[in-house]
Structures are given as structure tokens and as C-alpha cells.
Design a protein that fits this description.
Number of strands: 18
Strand content: 25-35%
Largest sheet: 5 strands, antiparallel
Structural class: mainly beta
Amino acid sequence: MATAPLKTYRGNCHCAAFKFSLHVPEISSAQTCNCSICSKKGYLWLYPPTEAFAIERGDGSLTEYHSANKTFTHKFCPTCGTPVMAVAVINGSEMMAINLRTLRDFDVWAIDPYPNPNPPMDGAAHLPVYVPPKFPGPDIRNEAEKGELELYTGNCHCGAVIVAVKSKPISEIHNGNILMYPQTTEVAIHGSEHLSSYMFARRESEHQFCRICGVSVCIKAVDPGEKVTKDWPSEKQDDLKETLKTTTINVRILQGVDVRDAKDVKIERCDMSSVPPLYTVEAGGNIVGIEDWQMEE
């Protein structure tokens, strides 16, 4: 049988502190998993041989996290929160899994349709069974709201950060991170001291993730201050005011919402990859062409 020709793929975390390359046959499929941590992080897995993987920058820089069964060591960037990979030793052999969402110039949507026609790996069936923590605060709905609003609760994987969101039944969300956009007054976050924040060079929002397990929790808009916004068109200023009233939640962390089931949730895809200024790894993971500004106190 003829051996498939090899192709070189390169990937990195968003801030580019960690960069790697893969030398594998052309990638045309991937594996998902329904276990608690894979579901929360939205992994899209490829299992290359270890000799096909090479670190180009940042060896030893990734934070490690072990789930309850301790089979896999999950690795994520402590600066930007990007979930990069997982490693394990099974039956004496080292096994590696790479998150294909970290590859550059690679269309994950071409192999990641929703609903996924290939059933995920049934990691949820493995013991011990994951038990999510309960939100420790009171119901954030008032009595009038309880008849029309659902109370969704969720958490990062390690349970250091727990979220409650009051919302109409979730039926439509956005892809990438799979997001919903409630008003900040409709969200309660317990354990926010465990969140790390990462900002793109646009300085428009803070992406917040658990510094212990690396799970993305929420995105908060940032007010750049009057020095930046004073010359904006009034429509753009009004949009900013509305955006600042919201806390964007990663729906993957919520209990009872199956983002893989199109009958449960409609996912609207939003492709921001071509919106200028373009992301460049060569600039250290920053978006070039934007002047830095200081937030006004």
C-alpha cells in the first residue's frame, strides 16, 4: 500500500508564546469527545505520532491540568488560555492529541460541521463520573422572572469558577467560542478571582479563562475611554454603550445545553478571520496596525 505524502502544518496559541509544527498526511477528519473537559474546551482532536510533532517556541511554557481520571495531561497557554494539546502514557506508550483549532491556515469548519455526522468519542462513559459543582449563590431570578426565564448554571472544569445566567431558553448562539450575550445584570460569577484575562491587540474585550484548568468562561467588553471614542461616529459610540452592558458567556460550560445537537441549539457562525486588522503570528500573536492606548481612569 502506498504511503500518503506528508504535509507540514504549523500552529500556536493565540499570543504565540507556544509554537509547534506537525508533519503528517493531509488532515481531512478529526475526533471530538463528549467528556466533561473536552466539551467545555471545544477540542477538535488529531492524534499524530509523537515523532511528527516538534516544538518551535515555548518548550515548557504551557500550564498542565489533570482531569479526575488523570489519564490525560491537558496543556494550555497561561497567557492567552488557548487549549493546545493533551498527552498520556497508555500501556507504556506515549500518546499525543493536538487541538486542530490551534493550526494556522487551516479551515476547521471544513471538517467540523454541526451537527457532527461522526459520533464523538464517548469519554463521558469513563469513570469517575464528572459531577459539576452547584452554584453557591441564590437564584438570581426574581419571582416574576421565574415563569419566563430559565436559570442556567455552569462552571470551568475544576470548579473554581461557577456561573449563573438567567435567560430565555437558549435556542440560538454563535460559533467559534460558542457564545451567548446576556446583560451583565443577568449574570452572576462566583470565583472570579480565579480568572485570568487576555486582550487582543484591538483592546476591545477581555477574554477570561480559569487559570487552573484553562476553560474559557466569559468575555467582557472594555471601554477604551473618551480619548479614543470621541471621534467615533455616533452609531459606533451607541454600539459600544450597548456592548458594555453585556457579559458574553461561553455556552460550552453550561449544564444541560448540548451544543452538538442542532435540534437543541441553532449555532450561527461568524467568521472574523478576514476582518482587518488581520491577526499575524509573526508579530508575536498581536494584531498589527493598531496604536496602543491607555484606558482613562
